[in-house]
């Protein structure tokens, strides 16, 4: 089966992390987010991967090339992000048989992708507590017979997980009219398939739609929890590594450092001396965590540097961010309330009582900056030495 993976969107809700990198290419453990989906498709036996690309398309192409893990990869360019059906339609000329459609910004339970492919036509379904916020699937006699977007009275608690195995004929049904929100939506293609085929619901034990910055943190928490301890880099004799810690070849952990897994330290990174790293944390390639720095439950992307005597907790730092010495990130409010973050100009609850900051590529904090919880620093933004930063910049 061919697997069409949608990776053309910019990820406006995850800004500033997507300022120069499309959301599907943001780091989740040891690879880009979309690579987890492509890996699941390859493991399920996909005989071709068709990547739909658009925003910052070259970064996706450069990563996967023409062949990935022995499976041919082709690309369809969607010039305008006019919706998920529009994205699949851009790949129409590549499709010549039954085909799967997967979102390049979703993490799926890999075993479910196996079952999805084996049971074509099929759709991924995930049990949710609040089905009103999702496309909800109705079933009869073990077959999906309808999908309703954000229903006020949901017929089931089965949400559409954005994973489809379509019969070849669906190729003819990709041109759908604009929906109320002005997009050409894949769910309208699914509705036609449901009318004409018996579509099997495939239960996903786990699923995560990465739309906003804290969901990238959650994606890392998920995939870092799967790490198995492996020490290939240089670790000082008096560093203390507990639990599932991976130190890749070419990474260095210096004297006096304490690391409590799951923590992944990628090649070229340096940690310590006397640093403390814990929680689900990714220290990206060539990143640097200096003397007496504490990092907790955070993502540090490639090339990011946190200088001596700083604290970073529950935060996502883009590439080549420079955290000046003595910077402190606050990751809890005094009132213990859920931390909010601005998403497209609106304050949105992250669902977390502990959440720090999100910094775009190249942001720099001055020495001894203090950053309040739920802040965003734009790509290239700076803070002054000693500044207490209370608002996004
Ligand atoms: P969304 O998350 O709806 O869109 P997005 O990724 O651009 O993010 P945001 O809403 O924050 O701007 O998209 C779901 C998936 O479909 C995702 O993998 C991107 C992909 N997609 C396309 O490839 N083309 C499109 O036109 C759209 C709307 C989405």
From TrEMBL:
Q: Name one Pfam family in it.
A: GMPPB_C
Write out the pathway annotation from the protein's UniProt entry.
Nucleotide-sugar biosynthesis; UDP-N-acetyl-alpha-D-glucosamine biosynthesis; N-acetyl-alpha-D-glucosamine 1-phosphate from alpha-D-glucosamine 6-phosphate (route II): step 2/2; Nucleotide-sugar biosynthesis; UDP-N-acetyl-alpha-D-glucosamine biosynthesis; UDP-N-acetyl-alpha-D-glucosamine from N-acetyl-alpha-D-glucosamine 1-phosphate: step 1/1
Q: What is the enzyme's class at the highest EC level?
A: transferase
Q: Does the record carry Acyltransferase as a key word?
A: yes
Keyword annotations from UniProtKB, A to Z? Acyltransferase, Multifunctional enzyme, Nucleotidyltransferase, Plasmid, Transferase
**Regions that span the bilayer:** none
Domain Mannose-1-phosphate guanyltransferase C-terminal residue range list: 259-349
For this protein, what reaction is catalysed?
A: alpha-D-glucosamine 1-phosphate + acetyl-CoA = N-acetyl-alpha-D-glucosamine 1-phosphate + CoA + H(+); N-acetyl-alpha-D-glucosamine 1-phosphate + UTP + H(+) = UDP-N-acetyl-alpha-D-glucosamine + diphosphate
The record's section on Gene3D superfamilies has: Hexapeptide repeat proteins, Spore Coat Polysaccharide Biosynthesis Protein SpsA, Chain A
- CDD domains the UniProt entry points to: NTP_transferase
* UniProt-recorded Gene Ontology molecular function terms: glucosamine-1-phosphate N-acetyltransferase activity; UDP-N-acetylglucosamine diphosphorylase activity
| E.C. numbers | 2.3.1.157, 2.7.7.23
InterPro entries associated with the record: Bifunctiontional_GlmU_arc-type, GlmU-like, GMPPB_C, NTP_transferase_dom, Nucleotide-diphossugar_trans, Trimer_LpxA-like_sf
Q: Would the keyword Cytoplasm be found if you checked this record's keyword annotation?
A: no
Into which family does the record put it?
A: In the C-terminal section; belongs to the transferase hexapeptide repeat family.
- Its recorded name reads Bifunctional protein GlmU
- The source organism is Haloterrigena turkmenica (strain ATCC 51198 / DSM 5511 / JCM 9101 / NCIMB 13204 / VKM B-1734 / 4k)
Upper taxonomic lineage: Archaea, Methanobacteriati, Methanobacteriota, Stenosarchaea group, Halobacteria
